[in-house]
Every structure is written in C-alpha cells, then in structure tokens.
C-alpha cells in the first residue's frame, strides 16, 4: 500500500513484546502514518530478541522498513526484562516464517533517527513504546534536529501505583535517566500511562473476532493466548497500542496538560513518574497526559485497525 503525501512521518522505538507487536502492526498498516524507521531496544527481552521479533513482524506483514538496533542496556543502570509477561522470546506462541529482512548495524539508533529527521521535509513524530534510552540519546546528540520533531508520543509512566516498582511503570523505570532527558527536552510530549492501558482491555469476545481475521488474526490470537498483560479470559491490556491510538485517534482520549517529573535518585522510587495533575509541584506544563480512554471506542478502533493489516 502506498502512503499518501500527507502521511505523518514516524520513527518507532520499541521492545517487542506482544503489545508492541500489535502497535507495530497498526502503525505500519495505517495509510495516515509513514513509518520511516524502527529501532528495537532492550526492554521486554534482550536486544537480540527484540531485533529478531521486529524482523519477524515485518517479514510476516511484508513491510520493507529500515531496522536499526538500539541500546543493549539503559544509560546508567543494569538491563531488566519482562519475559515473565511476554514469554522467553518476547513473542511466544506463533511459528513465524523465517525472516527475510536485514537490519542495519552500521550506525547507532540515534544516528539513524538523526538521518531520518534531518532529511524529512515534514516534522517527524517519535513513538516510544519501550524504555526511552535511544530517544534520549538522539535528543542529547542532535539538539539541532529537535526543531523538526512534531511530537513525542509515549506509552509509559503511571498515574499512581506501578508495575515495576511500587510507584514506577516498566518503560520509564527501566531507564529513569533517559526518561528525565526526554521530559526536560522542551519537545511536545503526549503520554498514555499504564492505567489507561488497563482501561483499554481487549475482552475475550474481541479476541475471538480477531481470530477470524485470516492468518493475521490467527497470529495475534496465538500471541494473545501467551500474553500475561492482564488475563486472556478477563481482558488483555493493550498498553503500547495506546501510543499509536493517541496519534491516529486522539478523540478517543481525555487528555490533560500537566507537569511530569521523573524521579531518578529515590532509593525505592527511582523511575517513578510524578504526573502532577493537581499542581503540587508548581512547575510549568511539559506534557499532555491521557487520563481516560473511551474503552468501547478503542475496542472498535482496535479491531478495525487489525483488519487493515490483512
């Protein structure tokens, strides 16, 4: 499918991961987005596995999109993973075909981002659905490029309690220093936090609808059956697809402008995202945060978008 002249140029930083797989499928199949580059990063599983998973998905969907692997670990901290949620490979459950898409190891992810942004005649949107290490490195290394960034759209952070630490969500808490760099960059940032992902559940009847969508539906159904982000029987949390939905269907969300402060020094709270909805910090707004999503509207949109990938 050919992208139209008004398609939004997009770079995706991702750590697939089953919910990342859904986000990548939607972003690369919707004609209003033009995915220029995908940069796998260590996160849900190791870099070698997230890179291979990206190759598997693009091979499966027959998409020729440049893939440049990113960071193997956070800026300052030891690598973590979420294989307990996504399985040993990150995308357990489906026998993907042998990959036929190469990766480019001749440059860093941040340099690849620079090349895309520098050459783009339209402002580029960065979609971050993993740890923010590579986006932070890009911001640090190429400050002159920031004028050609439309916005940074993220899945991460939490409005309250966490899923990584007591008050921290996995994507931000894996590399708090990187998250800090992103939120102090001055860029336009929009965020779908963890709790909104829990509102946007894919219920069993929706999984059954997706199952009927040919080999694509079969693939996702089998991945969903292995995913531990929620319950296959009580509803799955499609966290990372929310970031793509924020770009494509912002009308589905209630958004609030506020300040987000990333804790980096707390002994027990490093990686916590202080989403200051009540203005306690008395600091200027630096992000727009989704606080609610139309769950029924999201479900309908989700199935429609998956159907486009066939």
Helix tally equals 12
Would you state the CATH class? Alpha Beta
| Helix content range | 25-40%
Q: Which term fits the overall shape?
A: globular
Low-confidence region ranges: none
CATH homologous group name: Ribonucleoside hydrolase-like
Largest sheet: 7 strands, mixed
Structural class by secondary-structure content: alpha/beta
Number of domains: 1
Give the integer mean of the pLDDT values.
Answer: 93
Radius of gyration: 18 Å
Q: What is the H/E order?
A: EHEHHHEHEHHEHEHHEEHEEEEH
Number of strands: 12
Terminal-residue CA separation? 11 Å
Spatial order of the strands forming the largest sheet: 2-1-3-4-5-12-9
Strand percentage, roughly?
15-25%
Q: Do you know the CATH topology?
A: Inosine-uridine Nucleoside N-ribohydrolase, Chain A
The CATH architecture category equals Alpha-Beta Complex
